[in-house]
Amino acid sequence: MVFLTSNLLYSGGKFIRKHFRPHFLDSLRLTVTGGHGGNGFPKIGGVGGQGGCVYFVAKEGYTLKNVVKAHSTKRIKAAAGEDSTKVRLLGRRGNDQRISVPVGITVIDETGRNIGDLNEEGKTFTAAGGGPGGCSGNSFIGQPGQSRTLTLDLKLIADAGLVGFPNAGKSTFLKAISKASPKIASYPFTTIKPQLGIIEYTDYRQISVADLPGLIEGAHANIGMGHKFLKHVERTRMLILIADIFGFQLSPQHQKRTCLQNVYALNRELELYDPTLLEKPSILLINKLDLEGASEEFERIQPNLHRLEEQVAECPEEIRPRKLLNFERILSISAKEGMDIDRVVANIREVLDEAAEEDVPEPDLERLTRKNREYGPKVV
């Protein structure tokens, strides 16, 4: 009876399906206002206290859902400054509001301009300044604090990001290599929110992998939800491109692309969105080798996959990249059957370790020699 009543009282008439509920929040708009300045005391020259400020502070393990839970109205205001009195000529400053936000936040103003990045634990950004207190310069009348609407845009920070067209098998692959449980189905766009999985190795090493919703041609121009998805690739250390061995066709109205053309098309979308993405180490996975005829098809296209530069001229102009990704590994897999998954997991670690070694600068041997040189008398 209680269940029936709750259904009848529910204004929408039906509950939201579980996989459509907002499990992952990557964008949030907040209205922030600094505290009003306190009034001065004209007779004796007293100065009002400055209004408090609103700060964003990066915090590990925090999510935008935590921000919404703590500030359900999405309006944040700092305390006003204290008025000047006979007892206290200099009014107290208003209390600041320090809002914890996830690490990886980009702060965007009303015009769409990037005004701050919070990429490290403890990093602070002044979201709204407090108003000055009343003094002789403003007729002893406290001024209002800064007020504006800001967007907190979260970009996932992961070791590797999965990139591919819809139904390429990204979610199945993520489930095969980690304990993540993304929605999996035989139709495109089953992943509508980014998913994060962790690869755990026997020596307790952990590597995070982000499964991004499937791209479509034109994603770089924000067709579909292109920028909403592509932004998460920016903060991954490496890229894992996944392509269906038999190609992909979004709908009967769209042209069918072969596996090789899909690789070029993904390369092109990344290049047009942000050319610096092509400098990241990358792995290419050709998926669905469990299907009939897949092994023969892979043997046929494998030579072309290893010489993409020579074949790019034959690629249709609309998906032809100017600069190609330099794949560290090209592997064939079946994410559904778990074929060669262990080999891929080992290669992901190898590529990340190789990239980390390249980032370490060569030691200055001359400087180290000078630093370690012995001074004073020596014992012979």
From TrEMBL:
GO terms for cellular component: mitochondrion. Residues 22-157 form the Obg domain. GO terms for molecular function: GTP binding; GTPase activity. One of its GO terms (biological process) is ribosome biogenesis. It comes from the Eukaryota. InterPro entries: G_OBG, GTP-bd, GTP1_OBG_dom, GTP1_OBG_dom_sf, OBG_GTPase, P-loop_NTPase. Keywords: GTP-binding, Nucleotide-binding. Residues 158-353 form the OBG-type G domain. Residues 364-380 have a biased composition (Basic and acidic residues). It holds the Pfam family GTP1_OBG. The keyword Protease does not apply. Residues 359-380 are annotated as: Disordered. The keyword Nucleotide-binding applies. This is Uncharacterized protein.
